[in-house]
Fold this protein.
Amino acid sequence: MTLDVGSRLKAVRQLYGLSQRELAKRAGVTNGTISLIEQNRVSPSVSSLKKVLDGVPMTLAEFFTLDPEAAPQVFYGGDELTDLGSGKVSLRLVAARRPGRRMSILREVYAAGADTGEEMLSHEGEEGGIVVRGRIELTVGGQAKMLGPGDAYYFTSSLPHRFRNPGREECEIISASTPPTF
């Protein structure tokens, strides 16, 4: 059985909501190259295909094992959330493997004394969240505020920011950011 690389690439590109031109721009190739591959008029080398898939981004293994016909997963059990945190900070990401994901939704848990580090964070996009339990000190730009259960935040992520739990109990936050930072 031969794998139809062209049809698979087109399905992946559409799954991620990209035009041929956008994928080409991201991958650093011409849109003609993408078109020729999708029409099976050229058979890309492994390194060429890897370069194109880096524009998605997707690994070769994901490309060859992805079922583009399968409906995306809608519901996730708590044990299916990918933990991206370390140490005293748990960052459980919803839909980590969903193709074309356009936002990050996290269940963040900060142990007593935990923080995101001495260095302030800064990245493209926006983020917001609601404190579910415990307390968290959030610093955004030059402003710092202690937030408790039911309190919320929303800010432009390019502003330097930091999360710190100075309390004696865990703090849990449900947050979202766009574009996805994880």
Notes: The two ends are 36 Å apart (CA to CA). The mean pLDDT is 90.
